[in-house]
TrEMBL record:
UniProt main location, coarse: membrane
Name recorded for this polypeptide: LRR receptor-like serine/threonine-protein kinase GSO1
Taxonomy, superkingdom: Eukaryota
Key words, A-Z: Cell membrane, Glycoprotein, Leucine-rich repeat, Membrane, Receptor, Repeat, Signal, Transmembrane, Transmembrane helix
A Pfam family matched in the record: LRR_1
Membrane-spanning ranges: 762-785
Coiled-coil region list: none
Domain Leucine-rich repeat-containing N-terminal plant-type: residue ranges: 32-71
Family: Belongs to the RLP family.
Length: 827
């Protein structure tokens, strides 16, 4: 390099060196570094989670430390957020000696103490963030002394008695000196102040741009004075009990970009001018059932990208002007009163990510969504859409994760393009009119599909083999279709994570394949209402580690209760009986999220003498129902090992032998039905001692002996014991039994509908009719005078009993129908 060039560059080199020297020596004054080190030593924090304090070192320049900013050697900003700091406020005492601080961030720590009133010492503080730092109790009045504050965040996710409160001082006292504040975040603070009080206190903050007061226990009304905040861009008051209409004057907040009033118990008409604020990007008034209104004509070049009106009473059609919202990313109009057809211009909403129009009364066909390449969630379920769904509507949607078209009237074949979407996790097409054969899933082993629900359609033919190669499948619901054929595939090796499998109400036949046993995570298996035959696979009865529900009812199985059911202690519901006893259905409940859907099992079982609809099968509820079969032999003793049983129904079978004394093991049993079998012997006293047993039916067997005394078993009605010719003692009356063990004639059922006459013994009926025929005038009165007919129905038993004292009458319920039982008692 020439001497001339060196001479030219030397001044710049010296200047640069000089500047660098000044910057180094000018950083972090000694006493400032000393204060920071004292603060670090006082604080108690988790070193494994720390990313700032753990690296503060005495030998380094403190202005270079993570979380520290300086100006002329003085610390002006301190960010100790997410440092897992815990302990009392005394540990923060050094902080308040850093007098040049303009910004303090202690968010997301675990102080578990009150806010230190010493914050008043930081006279220059402009930004204070104490959100979710674990502070508790009343916000001190000293915070109001921070007159230069620009942003204040005291938010907390804790709204219990251990969270922050703003009562004394109230919100007006806290805000009285905040003339420069631009951002105020008080989410989760218990304020509990009337609407006009807090609204008027806020309306004086003329520079306020961001106001966030969610979950603050605020009460209404929502006051129009908030319209004075002309600089406001973000207004979040969600999840408060505002209980009022939305003031039309809020439409004058021309700088508003976000308006969140969801879950506020709002009512009245929502003004259309609020939709038309040109700067508005987020509008959420969801979860306000009392709020109603209709959609406007959206202006061109609208800014909205998130519109949520779900769970309100908005009504009317979806305007064709929706296509003006070019930036629209999320549109949720679910659970409203919208109707009409969807405008074809919706196909132009190319930025859509989340579309939910479920639970409305939209009709007609649906537009194509193949231009919305970012779409991840599409929910159109529970409407009145109809017609064929072209496969081209969904082509190329590589980001689509969930599609729900359930409970509509779509017909034709299932669009094959849906099977090619590799990101798709939930495909729900239940209760439509789709028909024909299903296409195979190409590259099934690479598919992301976790839930497939095609129930309640008219699909036919065999199940495509590729369905059972969907490796991530968790739920498969094909019930109520016309599928047929046999199931011979090795299901378990290809779908190891399958949790729920229902093939019920189809036309499958052949044996139940043992491959069902290989599904390691299986919790519920419903194969009912098909034509399966043969025996139940032994391995299925032994699948005790996971299986909670097994429904094989309404098939053509010829099997017996295997001893191996005794090992199925995890089984919560088991049904192997004819179709008129059980109706197993699945209820679909949509929940917010990426198409997340919970499936609750609803079954009807015979329990405690009546049919019960169980909304879902609780883990705590364990029921076995083997009723109405031809099971014979003794009651399997292995059943007595199922100590979690709450309900056991073995009625309407041919069980014989004694009632096992080991029934005493079933300490949780609440309902027991052994009626209409051939059981014999005494009632074991162990059965009588079951303290939770509230309903029991032992009727129509061959039991003998005295009903155990001194137990709650004697509190049951006599109907629970009738039809046992050798049984006596309370609650049976003398007419039903007694020490002499009177024999009773078989029961005669009489009811007053046309189907019951075949159950009446005609010798008794003719006797009654003969008696009445002898009184012609009396019959005339019975036929033509309603009052006499009522009198007759009430007193005919007494009349017959006086003429034929050997007759006994008792009323019982059978299958929901009331019967009069007429018996001959020779004693």
């Amino acid at each position: 390099m020439s001497l001339t060039l060196w001479l030219f560059l030397l001044p710049f080199c010296l200047i640069n060196f000089g500047i660098k020297t000044i910057l180094v020596t000018g950083h972090c004054l000694g006493h400032q570094q000393s204060l920071l080190l004292q603060l670090r030593n006082n604080l108690v924090f988790n070193p494994t989670k720390s990313k700032k304090l753990i690296h503060w070192n005495q030998s380094d320049d403190c202005c270079e430390w993570n979380g520290v900013a300086c100006n002329k050697g003085h610390v002006i900003a301190l960010d100790l957020s997410q440092e897992s700091i815990y302990g009392g406020i005394e540990n923060l005492s050094i902080l308040f000696e850093l007098q040049y601080l303009k910004s303090v961030n202690l968010a997301y720590n675990e102080f578990h103490s009150g806010i230190p009133p010493e914050f008043r010492k930081l006279k220059n503080l402009r930004h204070l963030n104490l959100s979710n730092a674990g502070f508790e109790g009343q916000i001190p009045i000293e915070i109001s002394y921070l007159t230069k504050i620009v942003t204040l965040d005291l938010s907390s996710t804790i709204t219990s008695q251990h969270g922050l409160k703003l009562q004394k001082p109230n919100i007006a006292m806290l805000l009285q000196n905040f003339t420069e504040i631009k951002e105020l975040h008080l989410n989760g603070i218990a304020i509990s102040t009337k609407g006009k009080v807090w609204s008027h206190a806020l309306s004086s903050l003329t520079n306020l741009q961001v106001l966030s007061m969610s979950f603050c226990n605020l009460s209404g009304p929502l006051d129009s004075s908030l319209a004075k905040l002309q600089s406001l861009s973000i207004l979040k008051l969600d999840h408060n009990n505002l209980a009022s209409p939305v003031p039309r004057s809020l439409g004058r907040l021309f700088n508003l970009t976000t308006l969140q009033l969801n879950g506020c118990n709002l009512s009245g008409v929502f003004s259309k001018n609020l939709f038309q604020i040109s700067s508005l990007q987020v509008l959420d008034v969801s979860d306000n059932p009392g709020l109603h209104g209709s959609l406007p004509n959206f202006p061109s070049q609208g800014s909205l990208y998130n519109l949520n009106l779900s769970h309100t009473n908005f009504y009317g059609p979806l305007s064709d002007s929706i296509h003006n919202l070019k930036q629209l990313s999320k549109l949720d109009l679910s659970n409203c009163q919208f109707k009409g057809t969807l405008p074809s211009s919706m196909s132009n909403l190319t930025q859509l990510v989340h579309l939910d129009l479920s639970f409305n009364t939209f009709t007609g066909s649906i537009p194509s969504f193949n231009r919305s390449k970012a779409l991840t969630v599409l929910s159109l379920n529970h409407n009145k859409f109809m017609g064929k769904v072209p496969s081209t509507h969904f082509e190329g949607l590589i980001n689509l994760m969930s599609i729900d078209l359930g409970d509509n009237s779509f017909d034709g074949i299932v669009p094959s393009s849906l099977f090619r979407l590799q990101s798709l996790q939930h495909l729900l097409l239940y209760y439509n009119k789709f028909d024909g054969l299903l296409d195979e899933f190409p590259n099934a082993s690479l598919s992301s599909l976790e839930m497939l629900d095609l129930s309640g359609n008219n699909l036919q033919g065999p199940i495509p083999t590729s369905i059972f190669q969907l490796k991530r499948l968790r739920l498969l619901q094909l019930t109520k279709n016309k599928f047929n054929g046999t199931i011979q595939l090795d299901i378990g090796s290809h779908t190891p994570f399958l949790y729920y499998l229902s093939l019920s109400n189809n036309n499958f036949h052949g044996r139940i394949h043992e491959s069902f046993c290989n599904i390691s995570d299986l919790r519920a298996l419903d194969l009912s209402h098909n034509k399966f035959n043969g025996q139940i696979p032994l391995c299925l009865t032994r699948k005790s580690s996971t299986l909670r529900l097994l429904n094989l009812g309404a098939n053509e199985l010829n099997d017996y209760i295997s001893d191996t059911f005794s090992t199925s202690c995890s089984l919560r519901f088991l049904d192997i009986k004819p179709p008129y006893i059980i109706d197993h259905i699945i209820t679909h409940i949509f929940e917010e999220g990426v198409g997340v859907r919970s499936y609750e099992d609803s079954v009807t079982i015979v329990n405690k003498g009546t049919q019960l609809n169980l909304v879902k099968i609780l883990i705590a509820f364990t029921s076995l129902d083997f009723s109405s079969n031809q099971f014979e032999g003794p009651i399997p003793k292995e059943l007595m090992n199922l100590t979690a049983l709450h309900a056991l129904n073995l009625s309407q079978n041919v069980f014989s032998g004694n009632i096992p004394f080991s029934f005493g093991n079933l300490k949780q049993l609440e309902s027991l039905d052994l009626s209409n079998n051939s059981l014999s012997g005494d009632i074991p006293v162990e059965l009588a001692r079951l303290s939770f047993l509230s309903v029991m039916n032992l009727s129509y067997n061959h039991l003998v002996g005295k009903i155990p005394t001194g137990t709650q078993i004697q509190t049951f009605e006599a109907d629970s014991f009738i039809g046992n010719e050798g049984l006596y003692g309370p609650p049976l009356t003398q007419n039903w039994g007694g020490e002499g063990r009177q024999k009773l004639s078989p029961p005669v059922y009489e009811t007053f509908d046309s189907h019951a006459w075949s159950s009446i013994e005609w010798n008794f009926l003719s006797l009654e009719l003969g008696f009445t025929f002898g009184f012609g005038i009396f019959i005339f009165l019975l036929i033509f005078l309603k009052r006499w007919r009522i009198w007759y129905s009430k007193h005919v038993d007494d009349i017959l009993y006086k003429i034929i004292p050997q007759l006994d009458f008792v009323y019982v319920n059978r299958g929901g129908q009331k019967y009069r039982i007429i018996r001959w008692n020779p004693y």
